[in-house]
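Q: Could you fold this chain for me?
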Amino acid sequence: MNNTTIFFLKNHVRFLCTLSIFLFANPNTIAQSKEDPVLLKKKIARAKSDNQKVELLLALSTYYLTKPGEFKEDLDNAAIANAQAKLVSDEIDYKAGKGKTILLEAQILREKGDSKMGLVITNNALTYAKKNNLTVLQADVYKELCAYKGYETEDVKEKIKYLEMAVPLYKKSRAYKKQADALKDLADYYGSIEENQKALQLLDNALALYKSINYKELQGVYTLMSDNYGILQNTQLSLQYALMAEKTAEEVHDNSYQLCTIYNHLALVYYDLLKYDLAFSNFEKALKIALENKNINDINTISYNMSSLYCQQKKYREALRVVTLTAKDYPPQDAIIKLRQNFIFLVCHSMLKQLDKAKPYYDQMLKDYQESDAGLAYKLTGIIIYLQQSGQVEKTYAYIEKFKEFAKKSNKLILYSQIELLSFQSDHASKRYESAIQHLQRHQSFRDSIFNSEKLKQSAALQLQFETEKKDKNIKLLTQQGKLQEIQIQNDRVIRYVFIGSVAVLLLFLSLLYNQFRLKKKNNELLEIKRQEINEQNELNKKMLIEKEWLLKEIHHRVKNNLQIVISLLNTQSAYLDNEDALMAIQNSQHRMHAMSLIHQKLYQSDNLANIDMSWYIFELISYMKECFDTDKNINFVLDTEKVYLDVAQAVPLGLIINEAINNAIKYAFPEDRKGNVNIKLNNTGENNYTLIIADNGIGLPENFEDIERNSLGMNLMMGLTDQIDGVFEMKNDDGLKIKITFTRNTEFEGTAEIAAII
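A: Sure. Below is the predicted structure, expressed as structure tokens.
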């Protein structure tokens, strides 16, 4: 398995958080007016003064300008209402109204596509506002000027300058709503140039202003805060604010396109938390809204996010399905989006060994690479992966050197880590094992550095959150923290139990010491010395116990990692084998190693280092086998397992037995795509006696099975492993094949298992 693609895509999806703000919630877009046009027209007819009539006409023009959709009729109606407002303003010399009509005329021209003339009139509005000391209008013009800048770094910095001039003008005029809007947009721009701490400070100020005027529609602010905390790797606060944005949108009945942004951000947060089902669910919600509004750029961006997530799960066919549908129905209009789409096609086809299908995308990627440096990381990664998978490893080294030059310019650790992993795969494929190991070690070192760097950012973000709470005690975080707080609650519970136990032991010790003191006053000095020695020994024992537990966890972690490396090495080796028997042997070895790896993974993640819950283990193992053999169409697995805690000595053999039995059932029980069931039962039959049954309703054993297959590796493994756990192995035809193993559970760590079950 090539991990390069997965690592690269995952980090790119997080980058999309920043990009999505501009795709889904363009800060330059004028807020949708909620006034009813019919009611506005009635108010215009009954206006008590010309000034009031002008303001109502401006509101009507703004309604048509900001109405969803891009229809010529709406823009024409906006222009007519604005022209009427300008006529009345000129008649009564209403300077504020006249200035607003100039700016609105510029906005209408921009919406019609005449940006050149729109910019000229916008500058006229700025001159008029300064001449007549119209501070709010002057700030509005600065905000409008942002619309004429793009999203390159220099353009964004220009937008920041405009808004930093607008904010004090709004503040001076006490236009608090507009001031808060400008602060929110300013934070958005700072976030896009990776000044996330500055962005969070501005969002904090905007939030305080919104609350001071009792403004309820805060979902946009919460989404931006979630985005910035996510980039700072503070996943807890990122999720809290993302959920708060969703909840707020529901409370204010927000049905605008902003929901697309909210769901996309929430999906990205769940992605970082490895909650893939929730991530997919929210990506689908966002995609549905984008499809309803036929927003091609957003459709392609969200589809790319979903494809990336499929690749992270090694589901390359599903990733191809998503991106293929999007490419066919909504061909991308943006060059970078097109490049990312081709990147997905190239990587997925390459990883699936569909080199004939990958070749056109490789040729296009190579051509794009030769023409420009835009999206260079995508181009180089895609080219190198194709060359590795197509057996042209020697060609990859030149592109790796180009990648190194690019990385030096950007100086980002993630690119260095990417390069080392690509180098490892090329060296390994070229059988330069010593160099490959060095690259793999440097890759891990960069990964550790990235982790430490992000931890520092997270600490800074937490400090900022603390200061925010001090400045505004009325800001409420979401109460839906459930799952994120469960881990902390469990830790607190363990600490509380340890503290109570320590106090109880200490009280008992003091009581015994006091009784000894009363009975043996003459030995007081000796007892005092003994007590000190015992205390020192207790502390030493505690330290030794902590160290041993840490070492044991580290051993499980290392064993699991080593098994995964061996699995990856076997997978790489299989790419160079043509012999089906050898490939099958390697595949069977990978399954057996994965069966053992699951044990060590669970023990490493669990506080209970002695025992493992076999019901969890069997479920995970079956899920893995189903994914490997794609059995959902014809084989149904039925699990009936009790919570059984076994130590490693019994769990590993039993896991390998289950692996062999399921493997054989999938391969041989249902030939020619025959459908059927495989039942797995693990039940207590009394005291510490347990029975494992693996039965299928397939074709069963052949008549001459005893003579031919009894000495096979799989059968020898199952029978030998059964003997290892002192069990009894039975196998017979019973409407298919039925394997039954009875054994007695090792109770040496029974107390530990019971505690783990309670916790």
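A (continued): The first strand starts at residue 611 and ends at 613.
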